[in-house]
Amino acid sequence: MAEPTLSVRSAKARDLAHRLARRENRTIADVIERALEFYDIREAAREPASSFYARLAASSGADIDLERIIREGR
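^ that's the sequence the OP posted. Answer follows.
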């Protein structure tokens, strides 16, 4: 039975995967799997922007001028 394959259409991604595999002495599949696992863990910890703004609006009880807050913080 043939192994599943991953087609990468980006020359930059392909070159980077090959370079990392050579440097780490790993297979390209291993490099890609590890990168995707890391990405999945990192992104799972982030709160989606829509949830953040909903929580912010609910906690303040009023409209917030984010532009003003950012300018004042600078």
